[in-house]
């Protein structure tokens, strides 16, 4: 596995999944619908355990340990 692949695998998989969904759906919908979908995904992500872990890790000046939840 390359360094880039390792970095992606250790990252926030939930956010990466929603980014992919938003981009793919956004290509097939209007701008307004795409933005609404992105906004809905962001709301779900901000309420996730991974978002809380990311903020906590930043404040503690340590690498985040994402769980995908």
Describe this structure in words.
This protein is mainly alpha-helical and 69 residues long. The chain is built from four helices and no strands. The protein has helices at 3-10, 13-26, 31-46, 49-59. The longest helix is centred in the middle third of the chain and has 16 residues, at 31-46. The two termini are 24 Å apart.
Concise structural overview:
With 69 residues, this protein is an all-alpha fold.
Termini gap? 24 Å
What general outline do the C-alpha atoms trace? flat
What is the number of helices?
4
Can you summarize the main beta sheet?
none
H/E topology pattern? HHHH
By oligomeric state, this entry counts as: single chain
Overall average residue pLDDT: 89
Structural class: mainly alpha
Topology:
Layout: H1 3-10, H2 13-26, H3 31-46, H4 49-59
Helix pairs in contact: 2-3
Keywords:
69 residues; 0% strand; flat
């Amino acid at each position: 596995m390359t360094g880039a692949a390792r970095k992606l695998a250790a990252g926030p998989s939930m956010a990466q999944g929603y980014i992919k969904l938003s981009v793919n759906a956004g290509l097939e919908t209007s701008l307004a619908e795409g933005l609404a979908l992105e906004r809905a995904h962001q709301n779900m992500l901000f309420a996730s355990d991974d978002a809380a872990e990311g903020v906590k890790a930043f404040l503690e000046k340590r690498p985040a340990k994402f769980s995908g939840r």
